[in-house]
Amino acid sequence: MKKLKRSARLVEMTQYLLSRPHRLISLTAFADRYQSAKSSISEDLAIIKEVFEDEGIGELHTLAGAAGGVRFTPKIGQDAAMETIQTVCRQLEQPERVLPGGYLFMTDMLGQPELLSELGRMFATAFAGREIDVIMTVETKGIPLAYATAACLNLPVVIVRRDNKVTEGSAVSINYVSGSNKRIQTMSLARRTLREGARVLIIDDFMKAGGTIQGMMDLLGEFNAKVAGVGVFVESGELGTEERLLEDYVSLAKVTAVDLKSKQTMVIPGNFFK
Q: Radius of gyration of the chain from Cα atoms?
């Protein structure tokens, strides 16, 4: 590209880093791209690093050596995350969102790109220190959330289906017991979508007792894959006599009470904030 003034170069470098999270970019690549000396590039990166960290955008890691460079890790500060989730909680407490069985209507919220971007940054922050190869979710409502998280972590997404699609070739299918209604259901995953031994981050939109997520974990066992973590947008704290099937997970919001008659709901920030 053509040689830019420093102010323009800083803007372009920032956009370049933001659009390539978790990718190692060498100083040589930047120097060639902007036709500038490495010393000038290093000074620019120091400015960007300071702004990223001061504003809670993320971290810019520098790796020394011939094969080194910089890597941008998206993150979100606690204050910004709390502001977003408090807004989410207020929206989820709207009476018209209450559905039979104590579920909440969330489809419209999971269709908002700006909100999804913030939720993805939260999960990326929570699991930033873990080795992950792929994001997994089950169709259908969790798909946008999984892709938002994958965009921040620069990872591929695999989708567990409720039934096998002929267009996906051979698949592994298992039966699992839904934790909320105790019904036996089926889920499947195409053999070509996940390599053996992969480290998988499971992302889901809603967790009641955790039966669906436990089913995904059992399905991963058929691939000898490892669960690197579990993240859920909203968890239910109202289980009655049911027992939670999972203990190790990250939730962004938690439903603590649902009154089906009055349609009053109480939603608080999840354990991400603890």
A: 21
Helix (H, G, I), strand (E, B), or coil: what is residue 99?
coil
Whether 176 maps to a domain, the answer reads yes
Same domain, 70 and 91: no
Residue 240 has pLDDT above 50, yes or no: no
Residue 133 has pLDDT above 60, yes or no: yes
Q: What is the mean pLDDT of the chain?
A: 91
Q: Of 74, 94, 126, which closes a domain?
A: 74
For the entire predicted model, the pTM comes to 0.91
- Does residue 137 register a pLDDT over 60? yes
pLDDT at 241 > cutoff 50: no
Q: What is the DSSP string of 172-228?
A: EEEEEE-TTT--EEEEEEEGGGS-TT-EEEEEEEEESSSHHHHHHHHHHHTTT-EEE
* Domain contains 1: no
At residue 156, does pLDDT exceed 90? yes
Same domain, 129 and 259: yes
As a residue count, the chain comes to: 274
Tokens of 43: 């000074």
pLDDT for the residue 154? 96
- Helix axis angle for 27-34 and 6-18, nearest 10°, is 130
- Residue at 167: amino acid letter: T
160: exposed, middle or buried (C-beta count within 10 Å: 0-12, 13-18, 19+)?
buried
CATH of the domain at 202: 3.40.50.2020
The 10 Å Cβ neighbour count of residue 271 is 14
Q: Which domain holds residue 153?
A: 78-273
**226 and 247 in contact (C-beta within 8 Å)?**
no
CB-CB contact of 57 with 72 (8 Å): no
